[in-house]
Structure formats: C-alpha cells, structure tokens
Amino acid sequence: MMHIGLNHFLVLSAALFSLGVFGIVTRKNAVMVLMGLELVLNSANINFVAFAKYGNLGNQGQLIALFVVVLAAAEAAIALAIVLNIYKTFNSINVDEVDSLKE
Amino acid sequence: MNEFILTNISLAIMVLPIIGFFFTLILGKKIKKMYYFELFISFCVIALTAVLVFSKLSWFSGTKIVSEYTWIDIKNSSVLPNLQVDLGIMIDNMTVLLMSVVALISFLVHIFSIVYMDGDKRFNRYYAYLGLFTFSMNGIVFAHDILMMYIFWELVGITSYLLIGFWYEKDSASNASKKAFLSNRVGDVGMFGGILMLFTTYHTFTFDKIFAQIQMGVLPFNSEFWLTVTGLLVFMGAVGKSAQFPLHIWLPDAMEGPTPVSALIHAATMVAAGVYLITRVFAMLTGDALFVIACIGAISAFMPATIALTQKDIKKVLAYSTISQLGYMVMALGLGAFSFAFFHLVTHAFFKACLFLGSGSVILGMHHEQDITKMGGLRKKMPWTYATFLMATLAISGVPLTSGFLSKDGILAGSLAYGQLTGHWIFAAVGYLVAGLTAFYMFRLVIITFHGEPADKEKFGHVHETPFSMVAPLVILSGLSIFIWYTPNPVSADSGWFLSKWISTPVSVVPNHARYNFMQSEAKNAAKTEQAKVLTGTETWNKAIEAPENMEHHIVHSEVYTETLHSLHYPAIFLSVLLGGLGILFAFVMYQWKKVSADKLANAVKPLYLFSLNKWYIDEFYQATFIAFTMLLSKVLYWFDSTIVDGVVNGAAFVTRMISKFCGKFDSVVVDGLVNLVAYISGFIGIFFKKFQTGKVQTYLIYVVFSLVILLFIFKSF
Questions:
Q1: Burial class (CB in 10 A: 0-12, 13-18, 19+), B485
Q2: pLDDT exceeds cutoff 90 at A103
Q3: Which phi-psi region, left, alpha or beta, contains residue B72 (left: φ > 0; alpha: ψ -120 to 50)?
Q4: HEC states along chain A?
C-alpha cells in the first residue's frame, strides 16, 4: 500500500484548482462560474491543511482554512447578490453577454 | 504821438486782417452776411493806416522806427553756434507810403467786389482770402528782416494761388493757379538761396545789420563776385513775384481769377512786392548785379509791350501792360533811379488798379464778355467807367498832368542819364520805345472797347452802367492819377513832397570799386553814420530808435548822377511826350479813323504779328524745353521706379514667396508626415491592443492565468 504524503495532497489540490479555473473560464452560467470559484478556494484550503500536517505551519494552517471557509461563505453571498443584479439589468446570467466592461 | 504808439498802430494794421480772415472763413459757412465783418476790418485797416501815414510823414519823416523781438536765441550751446534771429517791423517813409497804397486799394477792392462777386457761392470765402492777402502783404511791407519778408512772401504766394484758382471748377483757372505757384517757386528757390548765403555769412537776417557788416567789408566768401551772386539770388525772388522775364508767363494766365483780385494782387500790390524787395536790398546790390537787374527789367518792359499790341482779351492786354510797367520799375532800379522807381510803383498801383477795376466793370456790364473785338461803343452806355478808364489810360501813357507822366518821365530821365554817364544808351532806347508802345496799345484798347460802333448789337442792348459801389472806387483811383497828389509842379516831380521829402535813395554799402562808376564818389561819412546808427540801435524789444534828424536825407545819388538827371530832364520830357503822342496818334489813325487798316498791317508783317499774338512762343518754348524735359525725366524716373525699383521689390517678394512655398512643402510633407506617422503608429497599436479588451471577465481571467504561468516560468529560472 502506497504511503500517502504531502505530494498527493498537492497534486489533488492542483487538480482541483485546475478544474476550478477551467470551470470559471468555460462555463457560461454565472452560477456555474461561482461554483468553479468555490473549487479554487477549496483547493487552496487543501493546501493549507496539507502544509499544516506535513510542513511547519502548525495549527495556523488549519485556522486559515477555517477562515477561508468563512470568507467563501461571505463571498458566495456577495457574488450571488451581484448575479441577481446582473440578472435584473441584462435579463440573463450568461457571462458571455455581460461585456460592458469593454466600453 | 510817439514811436511806441506808431509801432502799436502798425502791429494792429498787420494783425487785424488775419482776424478778419479767420472769422470770415469759419463763421462764413453759418452766417451769410459774414463778409460785412471783413469789410469792417478793411475799413479799420485803412483808417489806422491813414493815422499812421499822416503822423509818420508829418512828425517822424526823418526817423526810421524799428521794433523787434528776439525769436530764436541760442547762447552757450555746446552743439549749436551762437545764434540770434530777430523778427520785427520797420517803419520808414517807404513803408508807410506802400502801406497806404495797399490799404487803400485793398479797401476799394473790398467795396468793388460786393457787386462784382454778388451771387457767387463762395462769397464769404472770397472775402476771407482777401483778408489773408491783406495780412500777408502788410507783413511784407512792414518786415524789417529778410526772413520775415520771406515768410510773408510765401503767404502772398499762397493767397495768390488760392484766388487765381478761386473758380477751381474751371480747368483753365486751376491750371493757371498751379502755373503761378510753380513759376513763383522757381524764383523763391533763388531767393531762399540768397537768404541762406546772407545768413551763413552774416548770421543775421536783419537788413540793417547785414548792410552794416557789408559796410565793414565782410563779404560772402570774401569776394565781391559772391556778393553780386547773393544779390541776384535775392533778385530771383523778385523776378518770380513781379513776373519779370523769364518767369513772367504766370501773370497773363493769372487773369483767370476774379477781376477785382487781378486789380489788387496781380496789378497793384503783390506784383509790386518784388520791386519793393529790390528797394529793400538796394544798398547791398553791386554794380554788376544792378546791371543784370536793369537788363532783365528792360527785356521785361519791352517784350510784353509788343505782345500787348495784338491781344484780344481785355484783361490779357492789361496783364502784359503790368509786366511791362513792372519791368520799367525794375529797370529803373537797376539804373540807379531808385526814387523814381518807387514813385512809379505807387502811381502805377493806382492807375493800374483803376484800369483793372474798370475792365471788371466792363466785363460785368457786358455780362462776362472779355473779348474786346465783341465790344465797342461802350462809351455811351457806361460813361463813368469810360471816363475813369480813359483817365487811367492817359496816366499810363504818360500824358502830361498825370501821375504816370511824372514817374515815367523820371525813369526815362534816369535812363538817359545812365546812357550819358556810361554809354549804354540801349536802356533809354528801350524805355522810350516801350513808352510809345504803351501809349499805342492802351489807346487801341480804349478805342476798340469804348469808341466806334458796337460789334455785337444784341449784347450791346443789354449793357448797363455798373452800380455806385463799383463806380466810386474807379473815381477815387482815377482821381489819384492826377499829378496834384504828388507834386505841385505838373512837369517835374523833383520839387514835390513825394520825392524831395519822403523818398531818398539808400546809401550803397558795397565796396567802392564794386559800384557803378558814377556812384563811387559818395560821401563816406554819411555811410559811416548810417552804420553807427544801426549798430547802436536795433537790439532790444519794442524800443523805437531815434535816428538823428534827416538821417534818410543823405546825398544818396552821387552828385554826378543827380546833376546829369536834372540836366536831361527837359529833353526827357520832350522825347516822352513826343513818343507817347505818336503812339496815341497811331492808335487813333488805325482804330478810330481807320485810315490804316489794322488787318492789312497785320498781314503785311505777318510773321511779326503771329510772333506777338503767340506771346513770342515763350509758353511753347517752355513747353518744349523745361516741361517736356521734366515730363521726360518723370517718365524715365517712372520707368526706373516701375521697372527697376518695383522689379527689385517684386523680385524680393517672389524669392520670399518661393522660400515660403518650399518651407510650406517641407512643413506639410516632412514635419506633418512625421507627426502623422507617430499618430498612425499609435493608432495602429491602439487598434491592435483593442482586440485584447473584450469586456468579458473570463477572457481576462485567461490572460491572468497565462501570465501567471509565464511569470512562474520566468521566476523559476532565477
């Protein structure tokens, strides 16, 4: 049986991060984009916890992970509010159509 | 009555007319009857002149009153030399006599013009000009220095110009005024040169101071030759103003002006100013200069007399006669017959003014007809004009019992005396010939105009005698042509008050050997006293100078000249009466009794007749020489101007334009190109980078991720 070490966690976190970024970039639905964003945050969480276990971060890593969870909740609330407003304005939550930044 | 009061009266006489001029000119536009003011001023002038003349001649006849004012005084200047210029008035007997002539004729002309100029649209301006003229003429008469004389000299010139061209709508009038002005300019340039010579030599303009210095032997360039030249240069002014040969051409044309003006300016006063100038500088004229003056005078006396024989315009005849008589005066001055020249100036002023005003009366009576061939028989319709005209004609012809006889006779006796003393009989010959010619053409004028049958019956029907205000001046002036005003003796003026008391020849101050031979033996003591008087006297403002009693009564002709003149007096009278009588007789034979046909005579001597009719072709000669030359010169200069100067200017402009064009091209192609290129490149870069800004958040995120990856790789290598 293979010993599970730091690298495994890092690879998992990197894969999760990549999936999150891929989701953010490719999804058209704004809610899906937010979900991708959650994946990215959680990959960071995994990193913090991993380094808390194997590195020299100590309990601080776990603490930051908890902090990130709280932050993610707040961010989700704000982001959903933004999405709602975008819907009100554009009658759609398709991020491809929201390109008024260009102007 | 003292000198101070006399000075103030003189100043008032001088200044009053200019006040009349300004008021009449300015208010004349608003007030129709403004000319009455000028008439009033003229009356004031004549009244004051009467006071001046009588008091001067009664109580101060031996005194020369000088009153001067320092105009420019430069002392202790580091740049300029010490310089003092005085202006002032000098009152001697000649001054007051000429002043009385000017004031009287000016007044009569003012009166005469009321009717003559009636209805003219510039009536008030006419009177204003008369006032300006009187002012200027008074200035000349009173001037005690040549500078002031020159100033007023130019002023009468401009007034003459204004009045000749008074009807400037007529081309002939405006041309005549220009001709007069330009001819006078020629003379005045010479006079100005003479004044400059005098000033650079003597550092003063005052006549007396100049004479005193000549007396002490100071001469221009230390040579008598240059003194002669200076005298002749000053004389040039007189040649222009007194219409002497060769500048006489303007006077006949000046008849384009109103006739009263011709009487005042171009017959009696202004043209006499030239003669007056010669009398003022007489003392400094050398024998050579006097000889030249006599020659000019003789030519000017003879030539116009021949021209007057054939002229048909009544005013032209009188104009040529004026030149001829002025030539007489100038010749007399040149021959040394000083007092007779001045005497003739005065008598001529009266009878010539009378003739001109008479011609004005005729012209008005004939409804502005000046051609004498269309007149005739006017005697019956205009008896007063005829009588006065005839009286003045008798005077100018030198008939005994008239003033003209006395003065002309004096001049002729002077020319005979000159002939006997020097052998130059030519002047006497010219003098007598002109006397005969004058009598002839004047009676020709009278007979054609007033006698015989009317040439134009219809016009004759409308002829009328002119009103009292025109006849009265004629009567006064013709009255002054009688001998009694000048001397009690009708055959000789020598014993009269005019010559024996009032007028005396000034002492010549030129070096003894430069004078005429017969003038050399003068008493030197007399001259020295004269000089002493001048040196002590004339420095202060408003200080009248007491000259010793009888200062003006030196023996001034040398004894020889005076004695010769007296001894020749009776032959002179005899000859002049003979020639004058012959002239009158011929006139009657030809025009009254028609024994000799004038036309046949004219045909018999056709070249001479045409020569005279065309005024000796002098106008044509000037046209062909001076005027053509000037025109040619102007054309050459114009060509030079339009081709060379304009060419240079245009060339410079062309070169500048070319350079500008090139600069413009450089600017628009190279500089603008560079700027545009920069802008274009910027634009291009902008267009390129615009594509990266899609506005889509996801695209931006891709850029971020890729950039992060690239950065990671870059920093990994460090």
A1: middle
A2: no
A3: beta
A4: CCCCCHHHHHHHHHHHHHHHHHHHHHCCEHHHHHHHHHHHHHHHHHHHHHHHHHCCCCHHHHHHHHHHHHHHHHHHHHHHHHHHHHHHHHCCCECCCCCHHHC
Q: Rounded to the nearest 5°, which phi and psi values hold at B72? A: -120, 130
Chain A residues in contact with chain B using a Cβ-Cβ cutoff of 8 Å:
21, 24-26, 33, 95-96, 98-103
Residue B697 touches chain A, beta carbons under 8 Å: yes
* Local structure of residue B371 (DSSP, 8 states): B
Cβ(B166)–Cβ(B124) below 8 Å:
no
Cβ–Cβ below 8 Å for A95 and B698: yes
- Closest partner residue to B696 (CB to CB) among A21, A95, A103 is A95
Cβ(B438)–Cβ(B396) under 8 Å? yes
**CB of B222 within 8 Å of any CB in chain A?**
no
The pLDDT tens digits of the residues spanning B8-21 come to: 888 888 889 998 89
Closest CA to B132 of B293, B17, B12: B17
Question: Is the Cα torsion angle B322, B323, B329, B332 positive or negative in sign?
Answer: negative
Q: Are B273 and B241 in contact (CB under 8 A)?
A: yes
Residues in Cβ contact with B366 at an 8 Å cutoff, skipping those fewer than 6 apart: B374, B375, B378, B459, B463
Please give the Cα distance from B282 to B298 (Å, whole number).
Answer: 18
Q: Which residues pair with B73 in a beta bridge?
A: B84
B550 lies within 8 A of chain A by CB:
no
Rounded to whole angstroms, the Cα distance separating B588 from B204 reads: 56
- Residue B534 CA to residue B216 CA, distance in Å, equals 12
Q: Identify the pLDDT of residue B548.
A: 38
> Could you tell me the two tokens for B8?
């103030």
**Pick from B518, B320, B290, B485: nearest CA to B407:** B485
Please list, in sequence order, all residues whose beta carbon lies within 8 angstroms of the beta carbon of residue B361, skipping any fewer than 6 positions away.
B382, B385, B466, B470, B471, B474
- Whole-number Å distance between alpha carbons of B219 and B227: 6
List the single residue in B with minimal CA-CA distance to A95: B696
* Tokens standing for residue B685: 């870069």
Residue B395 has pLDDT above 70, yes or no: yes
pLDDT > 70 in chain B, percent: 93
Residue B145: phi and psi, rounded to 5, are: -140, 160
Q: Who's near B686: CB < 8 A, 6+ residues apart?
A: none
B146/B203 Cα distance (integer angstroms): 12
Q: Using an 8 Å Cβ cutoff, are B53 and B92 in contact?
A: no
Radius of gyration of chain A (CA): 17
Q: Give the DSSP letter string of B389-400.
A: HHHHHHHHHT-T
* Closest by CA position to A33, among listed A89, A85, A84, A93: A93
Is residue B170 classed as helix, strand or coil in its secondary structure? coil
Interface of B with A in 628-647 (CB under 8 A): none
Residue B116, exposed/middle/buried by CB under 10 A (0-12, 13-18, 19+)?
buried
CA distance B520 to B46: 41
Report d(CA A20, CA B352) in Å as an integer: 136
- Decide: B206 and B144 in contact? Cβ < 8 Å: yes
B654 confidence band (pLDDT: 50, 70, 90): very high
Using the predicted structure, report yes or no on whether residue B656 has a pLDDT greater than 60: yes
- What is the SS3 assignment for B184? helix
Spell out which residues of chain B touch residue A82, defining contact as CB-CB under 8 Å. Answer: none
Residue among B690, B697, B705, B707 with most chain A CBs within 10 A, to mutate: B697
Q: How far is CA B33 from CA B43, B114, B124, B130, B263, in A?
A: 16, 11, 8, 16, 24
pLDDT of residue B716: 84
Q: Say which amino acid occupies B506.
A: P
